[in-house]
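**User:** Once you have settled down, spend some time on the protein underneath, comparing sequence with structure tokens, and judge whether sequence predicts the tokens.
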Amino acid sequence: MAHPIDEIAQQKLNKLTALRASGIEPFPYGYHRTHTAHQAVEIAQQNQDALLTQEFKVNVAGRVMAKRGMGKTSFMDLRDGSGKIQLFFRINNFSESKYNTLKDIDIGDILGAQGKLFLTRSGEPTVEVSDFTLLAKSLQPLPEKWHGLVDVEKRYRQRYLDLISNPDVKKIFEIRSKTIGAIRDFLNQRGFLEVETPVLQPEAGGATARPFVTHHNTLDRDFFLRIALELHLKRLIIGGFDKVYEIGRIFRNEGISIKHNPEFTMLESYETYADYQDVMKMVEEMVSSVCQQVHGSTKVEYNGQIIDFTPPWKRLEMRQAIIQYAALDIEQFPDTASLKTEMTNRKMLFNANRERGKLIDEIVSTYVDPQLIQPTFLFDYPIEMSPLAKKKPGCDHIVERFEAYCGSMEIANAFTELNDPIDQRQRFMKQMEEREKGDEEAQKLDEDFVLAMEHGMPPTGGLGIGIDRLVMLLTNQTSIREVILFPAQREKG
């Protein structure tokens, strides 16, 4: 027995054949559209009285989303990228054969329609169609009850159907685009230069993460998909650019969760003669400005909470945050062994194979992150957690680093950048020791980057912002995959 969807697809194919047999090309070249659906609706609404005495003609085009009637009159809902407008067909406006072709127009087809605007008795803007053209025949049915689907994987795998059937999903990605544009506007106005750096890199550096590996056939060598933008942007600082930024894709061969995706978008910026306090101020100004530009307010609703991005944001030293929320003073446990012992005594869950820096990170993730709902800067991190950050003056075990949190998740990471090449080499070597112990995420020694630093790197403030997480906040989405158009999927079974 044939599957019902297969039967519908066959019916559509039969209609395609019938249209061609009658001399109608179901996939013509182009169409002269004079107005979007939204523009046509606005004209009708703004000229309600004039519609009674004047003709306002439009050519609209879009996807048929609904059909009603099929006697001497019929209606269709047409949706394009701007919105929806109703079409009205009257048999008197066409030859009988032309009107009869409407029966071969299905929901999902792309249609062009020409006619005059009017308002129905209920006040709905409508086009009284005088001519229409099939622009693309759909050969697969749209889901009848897309809003009721619970198969999330199918929504991501067939995102085009999600976008066709759910305007709210489309809105998310419109906001994403506006967010990135607003970030660019903010940084450009501050004199930053947007640049592009390599995606394929001989060493995966700038972050502690496991990379993806690929092979360059012509050069006959392996390359890594970048795990950060940092090291090449710092090379540009060394080369004489004062302010640079890049918005680019990052690839980390790690797990997937509602807050993590192996392929994601990052903003990184670097400013000479700035430190992490300067960057901290820029972040709160940037995010509040972006929110204002995108939403018309510095406040948004996220996961049932009203988030207020208005500066100044709360500032909280990391050590004090752990004391406050975990009742643990990490200063009393200065090495891995003592911290593991204390965490064991407290019955804290942790990965026994990790060193002190990553154990502290686990503590923060478990006890501190959930408490940081409103925008908060967590600052001054242990040196073990930050191999690329500058030490705090007079303190060898703390670095000038902050992370920005909001909605219980990290959205930004920043340093007063380490610019001492001797110190940098020593920290890379320490990371290499961790790799030898089995830590695949520890950073490798990048000799070319150290060589660049040896030519002199000015004091610099660096910043990384996770674009996807920021968009989550601005669109009230609790899963990162909802704000990525085409997240990677498992192979279909």
